[in-house]
């Protein structure tokens, strides 16, 4: 628990309960990548399927015919993070099915060189919930995720576009979020343009926090703090994955209160 608070992430070992959940979830995850309803999620020359909210799980995390999501990671979230209502009053969101393929990232039509270089060289690092809007792509706080839970559902090598994060960055961003929003009514947070401040704090994080990558196998999982700067690395030289590519299910359930997003540790 102390390690998670300080580092902003932790990893969980193999868990039979989670492995059983994957057995039921994997066929549904595989179906998303060929479903015409989700074709819009292909990016970067077809090297990344973003798959946002693509898994057809219910509020308990269960896919049709399968069990609710459970295991060490879920117990930790409920007990250590104080989210006992997860899966009840605080429903699981429909999981993202993030799939990477060899060659990620290729340039995308209409993308500037600066944006592509940031994805290639800085893993498209971002904090969830800070959305770019309008023609000028100004950032504003719009979503209030409780955490990021990554669940690999297939095997892949350590350099096959793993999840990356800047360790401890959740503390720097958390302090800045409180300085920025604490005296603003929560109903007006989405009106505040935080573009320049966000870029300044992100630069500070790049200069002061260690970038790490996280690899896990099916049955394992990793948890990241909601305020942490994170991204996805390019597909490495000689990286290996099966025909499914690098496929990970990500859960980011919403908190019931924006104030909790701001103030909870």
Automatic annotation (TrEMBL):
Protein name: Phytanoyl-CoA dioxygenase
Source organism of this protein record: Hwanghaeella grinnelliae
């Amino acid at each position: 628990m102390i390690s998670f608070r300080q580092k902003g992430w932790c990893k969980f070992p193999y868990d039979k309960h989670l492995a059983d959940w994957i057995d039921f979830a994997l066929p549904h995850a595989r179906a998303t990548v060929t479903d015409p309803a989700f074709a819009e999620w292909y990016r970067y020359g077809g090297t990344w399927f973003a798959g946002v909210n693509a898994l057809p799980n219910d509020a308990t995390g269960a896919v049709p015919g399968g069990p609710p999501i459970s295991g060490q990671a879920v117990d930790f979230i409920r007990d250590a993070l104080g989210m006992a209502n997860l899966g009840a009053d605080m429903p699981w969101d429909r999981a993202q099915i993030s799939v990477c393929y060899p060659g990620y990232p290729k340039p995308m039509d209409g993308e500037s060189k600066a944006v592509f270089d940031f994805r290639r060289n800085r893993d498209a690092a971002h904090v969830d919930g800070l959305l770019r809007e309008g023609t000028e792509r100004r950032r504003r706080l719009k979503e209030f995720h409780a955490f990021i839970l990554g669940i690999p559902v297939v095997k892949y090598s350590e350099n096959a576009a793993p999840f990356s994060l800047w360790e401890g960055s959740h503390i720097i961003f958390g302090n800045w979020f409180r300085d920025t929003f604490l005296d603003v009514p929560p109903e007006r947070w989405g009106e505040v343009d935080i573009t320049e401040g966000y870029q300044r704090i992100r630069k500070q994080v790049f200069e002061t926090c260690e970038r790490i990558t996280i690899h896990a196998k099916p049955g394992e999982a990793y948890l990241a703090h909601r305020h942490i700067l994170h991204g996805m690395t390019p597909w490495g030289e000689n990286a290996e994955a099966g025909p499914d590519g690098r496929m990970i299910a990500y859960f980011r359930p919403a908190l019931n209160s924006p104030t909790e997003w701001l103030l909870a540790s």
